[in-house]
């Protein structure tokens, strides 16, 4: 049998409870991902390496935790220098070694290099030459072709698509909230910044989807296997009707954010339909997941279109939840150290290799994608590559749990708070709260501060802190985390 094609699809801020196959009582129907789960394996203990996007994307692409780089908390901007250094093994470079054609389509957000009119490195968007090549992005890190956003297509400029190394737009202008036609007038919305004259936010994901389907159709004409890294923006904020494609509006009972989850499900369906139409369905590995947990809903806006806030330096933002648990039973949201911030849906389909309709409770982390793809393509990882990656292929093939390799996992919050899971125990260090920015807003780690310890089998809501009653577990897990660091 020939090497399988591989498609990895990652949503932006889609929670554990957003899929109807994970949350039947939820307010969003996701028939395409439900069908994928019926045809493959659904994981219930899958985690992102971080509870925000940039470090998770770095972890997926390199197989290592982003806190091993200079980025110790938060995310980078759309004009930030590359996080992935030249020469590091990446998913596409690994697969190219196995004679794969590789493509990146969608949100990048792990850095690239821009220049000014004089050709000098530049991060000041008003001085950047948007006609010059953008380097140190997907094409320079192993992808054969790319159609991508440097930042985030919904809220982090530059607002425009890059084909390989060049923007596809002729003209950029600086927009700020309040300008005529600017989205998010006075609201959180898209941050001010450079925007292509023909950029329309609600059309971004449909365009990304069609590019992905076109790529699959092209590759179907070639016997060479392919790897597609597909990363739409949905359902990332701003979640408002005017930022949602018309055909996706009112498709859920969870408001505009729910409609954007439906849109992501539609994207998965379009990809699967294209695989079937091209005859590639049976020999393609498809994995679907998210870069971190969800927020509870879309922002609540006042009559002036401004985001509701209690004011001050620590705003308590209000959300429409629509009685929908975006992260299911898990406590917390995007950016938090609690499981709602990093426990995500993860579905894998590979006919003949992954049992249809199977359910796995095994612990996996998205840093494991690199070693797993190495195993699928019968490659060993190079030395000093994928330090935090453990192959999940035995789990995917239904091997007994004793044969699975991952026994623990490290989590990281937006504010740089560390946590480690081993068996049923979860330890959070130097932090007594959420460690992230959504309500309840947390704090940054303070060395020496007593932390949190939870029995995740008996207390899935992380409500009973056992730090004081199990000092032996605190010491054991603290030492284990330090050894990995």
Walk me through this protein's architecture:
This protein has 485 residues and is α/β, with parallel strands linked by helices. The chain has two domains: 5-398, Alkaline Phosphatase, subunit A, CATH 3.40.720.10; 415-484, Arylsulfatase, C-terminal domain (2-Layer Sandwich), CATH 3.30.1120. The protein contains eight helices and 20 strands. It has helices at residues 31-39, 53-62, 91-96, 204-219, 255-277, 369-376, 393-396, 471-484, and strands at residues 5-11, 41-43, 46-47, 101-107, 145-149, 162-163, 166-167, 172-175, 193-196, 226-231, 284-290, 298-299, 319-320, 346-349, 358-360, 364-365, 408-412, 418-422, 425-428, 452-455. The strands form five sheets. It has a ten-stranded mixed sheet. A four-stranded antiparallel sheet has the order 17-18-19-20, with helices on one face. It has a two-stranded parallel ribbon with strand order 3-16. α4 (204-219) packs parallel to α5. The longest helix is centred in the middle third of the chain and has 23 residues, at 255-277. It is globular, with a radius of gyration of 21 Å. Mean pLDDT is 93; it is low at 179-188 and 310-315.
Task: Sketch the topology as an H/E string, one letter per element.
Answer: EHEEHHEEEEEEHEHEEEEEEHHEEEEH
Distance between the termini: 41 Å
| The number of domains | 2
The secondary structure category is alpha/beta
| Strand order within the widest beta sheet | 7-6-5-4-10-1-11-14-2-15
Q: How many β-strands, per DSSP? A: 20
Largest sheet composition: 10 strands, mixed
Q: Determine the number of helices (DSSP H or I, runs of at least 4 residues).
A: 8
> Averaged pLDDT, please?
93
- Oligomeric state of the chains present here: single chain
Radius of gyration: 21 Å
Annotated CATH topology of the largest domain:
Alkaline Phosphatase, subunit A
> How helical, in percent, are the residues?
10-25%
**CATH second-level architecture of the largest domain:** 3-Layer(aba) Sandwich
Described by the principal axes of the CA atoms, the overall outline is: globular
């Amino acid at each position: 049998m020939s090497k399988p094609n591989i498609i990895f699809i990652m949503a932006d801020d889609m929670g554990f409870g957003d899929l109807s196959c994970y949350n039947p009582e939820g307010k969003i129907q996701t028939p395409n991902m439900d069908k994928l789960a019926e045809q493959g394996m659904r994981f219930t203990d899958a985690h992102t390496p971080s509870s925000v996007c940039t470090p998770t994307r770095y972890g997926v692409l390199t197989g290592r935790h982003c806190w091993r780089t200079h980025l110790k908390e938060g995310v980078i901007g759309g004009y930030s220098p590359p996080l992935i250094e030249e020469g590091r093994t990446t998913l596409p470079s690994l697969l190219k070694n196995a004679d794969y054609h590789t493509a990146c389509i969608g949100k990048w957000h792990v850095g690239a290099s821009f220049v000014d009119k004089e050709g000098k490195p530049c991060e000041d968007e008003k001085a950047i030459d948007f006609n010059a090549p953008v380097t140190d992005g997907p094409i320079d890190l192993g992808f054969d072709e790319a159609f991508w956003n440097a930042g985030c297509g919904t809220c982090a400029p530059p607002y425009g698509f890059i084909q390989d190394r060049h923007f596809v737009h002729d003209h950029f202008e600086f927009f700020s909230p309040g300008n005529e036609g600017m989205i998010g007038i006075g609201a959180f919305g898209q941050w001010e910044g450079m925007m292509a004259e023909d950029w329309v936010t609600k059309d971004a994901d449909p365009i990304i989807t069609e590019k992905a389907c076109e790529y699959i159709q092209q590759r179907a004409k070639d016997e060479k296997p392919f790897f597609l890294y597909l990363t739409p923006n949905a359902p990332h904020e701003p979640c408002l009707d005017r930022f949602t494609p018309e055909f996706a509006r009112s498709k859920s009972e969870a408001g505009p954010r729910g409609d954007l989850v439906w849109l992501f499900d539609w994207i998965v369906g379009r990809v699967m339909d294209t695989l079937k139409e091209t005859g590639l369905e049976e020999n393609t590995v498809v994995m679907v997941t998210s870069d971190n947990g969800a927020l509870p809903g879309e922002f609540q806006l006042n009559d002036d279109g401004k985001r509701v806030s209690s004011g001050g330096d620590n705003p308590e933002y209000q959300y429409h939840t629509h009685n929908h648990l975006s992260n299911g039973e898990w406590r917390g949201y995007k950016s938090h150290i609690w499981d709602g911030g990093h426990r995500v849906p993860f579905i894998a389909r590979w006919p003949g290799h992954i049992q249809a309709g199977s359910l796995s409770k095994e612990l996996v982390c998205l840093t494991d994608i690199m070693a797993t793809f190495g195993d699928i393509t019968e490659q060993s990882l190079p030395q000093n590559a994928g330090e935090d990656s453990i192959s999940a292929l035995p789990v995917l093939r239904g091997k007994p749990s004793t044969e699975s390799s991952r026994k623990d996992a490290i989590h990281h919050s937006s504010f740089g708070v560390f946590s480690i899971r081993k068996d049923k125990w979860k330890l959070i260090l130097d932090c007594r709260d959420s460690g992230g920015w959504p309500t309840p807003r947390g704090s940054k780690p303070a060395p020496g501060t007593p932390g949190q310890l939870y029995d995740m089998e008996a207390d899935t809501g992380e409500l009973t802190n056992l730090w004081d009653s199990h000092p032996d577990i605190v010491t054991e897990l603290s030492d284990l985390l330090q050894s990995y660091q």
